[in-house]
Q: What sequence folds into this?
């Protein structure tokens, strides 16, 4: 798994189809259930915006800090924040602490769960036909943004 | 059960009884879901002669079998009841997210019977089902209703009526959240007659497929397949608005109550390029990889700040071209119709009808209190309000153009088949499978139940006997079309490059009925690419029930035949299957529809269907072949 890669979401591209939620729960839990998806789409219907919310892999993870039994840790190899389902006591402190509402709770298994990037092949990205969700290195994302901005600047100069 | 939720919810609003029945897997395989279930329930439960707005009518919602899966475009749920507009099989299909939530709550269908004695709404959150007081919601428009209920139950979806349904306007819709809806045949009035304001659904149970990995992979295959359709990019960009220009070029638009074929500057004002001006993004239904709907915002002028999911061909033509309103007023009509909860085609149809008889002097300023001319948005919206609140002439028009025209002795101006207003396209100017389908549609004059999966909009050519339309594609398209080879060879003749309208119509209707049973969208890229072969595989991976493509098509045909039998049980006659007389008499740019020839196509269609050519009733042999019997309840 590439440590440099992270999930990038473009809210202007997301059409709110929720395919990511279906394939996430299907590939992790063998069930089609948005409630059990790691990726959640927030639909702001009257404004016409759809915002996929996933784990930000924070540098100072509130979920990790608040866990009373140390069931949440940072994986050394991947750099990801991971939940150890075996040691999780189901207190849901992490669910409350996560500032993005990403950390979720599985009522059947009685454990917290979060995005695990599908071991490096995120299914939400694979199925996102709009490319609103992408998985790429930080410098790739910034580079693409810089390129986009540069093209706009050149266009503006040419218009003058 | 896999794939299905496995339960049918049965709610009696007279007695407040709530029952949950198990879904029988044999029943599921026989009728698939969606319209298949509804046709069976309605045929069995609604007695002949029942008043559509009375206690005996039932309102049924059934999710498509694949709803709740990631297979692309499987969001659709069918709602059905006896129609107050046509007195026949009232039915409508809607996507968005309501059906997925219902299934996640644990129910494939809801049957609503009886009649409440006070306004209520139904709340379904998993096993928690309640009939609750709706006094504070009654009288509010559909958007206000959704807003209140979504705030109260986070993450829920709502099926609701506006004032249209409350006031029993016979073409009222059941709206599906803010921007979806079960339109056309007046199901909103049925819901209103039961004093049912809304159905709130929220589910967290999930649907367990038989083969999770197989389902995941075939869903990707489905995405790629749809994306390989020739029309895919065009649909992603402009959705159904692509159709305006070809139909305008054929002078085949429903214009000024079907009298003109085009209006001045139609291309500049209503062509697909208007989307670029008003919209910069798209909105999708559950699991869809097309996202045909445009998010539209008006930035200046009298409607500044208006935001709405809009710019679909059918309402744009209905309000913009049939009633003649300017584009921004057409966008506004999208908001008004959704708030009031009325069908956009039939409301514009009723208003266009009134505009024409105003022109003819049958309606006067004294009758209305104002002038009513084609293109006058202010007058049109005033009349719409009069219809919704059943004031004056509006009260007559609220019963639909068929009844209104009879009362006003203006039958010749009413454009409908079996009471349902015809949409968008004037069949005199383009005769095709699609045009013909408006005649045989189980719900009346409507374009959504018969669509040639390989229709080529570049051509407008028929054989002189009207039996065939130009196919217009190359052999690879023919080869890839998922249709039994013998039937394909009968329906499409590559040598003469012609498609047989009767035979292809029968196939198209069954194919769409399969979509409406299985929960699949019928946008052209889907219809062209996703046929019964891949669907049988998806169905098996999802439900674990073995089924062949042939069995799926038989099930779809079974549903269509049952709906037809419903119509016959409720009084449909052979003579009702006809276009408005003016289509056979009045020329439009030199075209009239030849009655004898089009009736010959109808005869060929009835033969292809195995229906009696004198009465149009499915023959006993056909019913036996499909395994349809009318004893027992089938459950």
A:
């Amino acid at each position: 798994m590439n440590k440099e890669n992270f999930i990038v979401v473009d809210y202007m591209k997301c059409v709110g189809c929720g395919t990511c939620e279906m394939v996430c729960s299907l590939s992790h839990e063998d069930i089609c259930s948005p409630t059990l998806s790691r990726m959640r789409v927030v639909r702001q219907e009257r404004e016409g915006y759809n915002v996929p919310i996933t784990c930000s892999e924070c540098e100072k993870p509130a979920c990790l800090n608040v866990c009373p039994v140390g069931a949440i840790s940072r994986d050394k190899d991947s750099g990801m924040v991971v939940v150890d389902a075996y040691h999780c006591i189901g207190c849901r402190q992490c669910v409350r602490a996560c500032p993005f509402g990403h950390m979720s709770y599985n009522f059947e298994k009685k454990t917290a769960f979060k995005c695990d990037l599908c071991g490096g092949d995120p299914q939400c990205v694979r199925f996102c036909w709009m490319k609103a969700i992408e998985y790429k290195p930080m410098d790739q994302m910034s580079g693409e943004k810089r390129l986009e901005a540069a093209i706009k600047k050149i266009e503006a100069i040419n218009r003058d | 059960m896999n794939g299905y939720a496995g339960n049918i919810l049965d709610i009696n609003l007279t007695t407040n009884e709530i029952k949950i029945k198990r879904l029988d897997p044999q029943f599921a395989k026989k009728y698939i879901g969606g319209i298949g279930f509804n046709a069976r329930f309605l045929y069995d439960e609604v007695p002949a002669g029942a008043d559509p707005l009375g206690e005996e009518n039932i309102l049924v919602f059934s999710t498509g079998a694949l709803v709740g899966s990631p297979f692309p475009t499987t969001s659709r749920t069918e709602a059905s009841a006896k129609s107050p507009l046509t007195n026949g099989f009232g039915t409508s299909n809607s996507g968005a997210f309501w059906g997925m939530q219902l299934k996640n709550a644990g129910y494939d269908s809801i049957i609503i019977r009886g009649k409440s004695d006070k306004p209520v709404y139904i709340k379904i959150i998993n096993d928690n089902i309640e009939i609750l007081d709706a006094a504070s919601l009654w009288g509010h428009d559909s958007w206000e209703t959704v807003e209140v209920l979504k705030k109260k139950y986070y993450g829920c979806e709502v099926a609701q009526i506006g004032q249209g349904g409350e006031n029993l306007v016979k073409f009222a819709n059941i709206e599906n959240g803010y921007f979806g809806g079960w339109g056309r045949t007046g199901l909103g009035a049925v819901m209103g007659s039961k004093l049912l304001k809304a159905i709130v659904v929220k589910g967290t149970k999930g649907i367990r497929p038989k083969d999770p990995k197989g389902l995941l992979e075939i869903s990707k295959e489905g995405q790629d397949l749809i994306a390989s359709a020739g029309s895919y990019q065009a649909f992603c960009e402009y959705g159904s608005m692509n159709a305006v220009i070809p139909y305008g070029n054929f002078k085949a638009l429903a214009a000024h109550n079907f009298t003109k074929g085009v209006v001045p500057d139609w291309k500049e004002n209503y062509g697909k390029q208007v989307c670029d001006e008003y919209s910069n993004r798209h909105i999708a239904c559950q699991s869809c990889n097309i996202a045909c709907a445009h998010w539209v915002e008006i930035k200046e002028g009298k409607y500044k700040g208006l935001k709405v999911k809009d710019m679909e061909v059918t309402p744009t033509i209905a309000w913009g071209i049939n009633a003649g309103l300017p584009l921004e007023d057409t966008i506004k009509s999208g908001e008004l119709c959704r708030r009031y909860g009325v069908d956009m085609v039939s409301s514009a149809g009723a208003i266009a009808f009134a505009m024409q008889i105003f022109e003819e002097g049958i309606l006067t300023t004294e009758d209305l209190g104002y002038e009513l001319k084609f293109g006058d948005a202010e007058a049109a919206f005033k009349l719409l309000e009069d219809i919704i609140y059943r004031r004056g002439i509006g009260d007559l028009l609220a019963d639909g153009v068929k009844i209104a025209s009879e009362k006003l002795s203006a039958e010749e101006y009413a454009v409908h088949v079996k009471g349902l207003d015809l949409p968008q396209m004037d069949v005199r100017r383009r005769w095709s499978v699609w045009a013909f389908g408006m005649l045989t549609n189980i719900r009346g004059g409507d374009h959504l139940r018969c669509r040639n999966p390989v229709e080529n909009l570049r051509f407008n050519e028929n054989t002189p006997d009207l039996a065939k339309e130009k196919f217009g594609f190359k052999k690879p398209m023919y080869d890839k079309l998922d249709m039994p080879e013998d039937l394909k060879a009968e329906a499409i003749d590559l040598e003469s490059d012609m498609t047989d309208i009767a035979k292809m119509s029968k196939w198209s209707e069954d194919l769409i009925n399969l979509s409406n049973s299985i929960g699949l969208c019928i946008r052209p890229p889907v219809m062209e690419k996703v046929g019964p072969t891949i669907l049988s595989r998806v169905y098996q991976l999802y439900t674990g029930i073995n089924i062949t493509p042939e069995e799926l098509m038989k099930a779809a045909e079974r549903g269509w035949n049952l709906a037809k039998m419903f119509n016959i049980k409720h009084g449909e006659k052979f003579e009702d299957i006809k276009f408005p007389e003016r289509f056979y008499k009045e020329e439009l740019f030199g075209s009239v529809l030849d009655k004898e020839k089009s009736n010959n196509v109808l005869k060929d269609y009835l033969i292809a269907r195995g229906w009696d050519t004198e009465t149009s009733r499915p023959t006993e042999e056909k019913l036996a072949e499909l395994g349809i019997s009318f004893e027992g309840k089938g459950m």
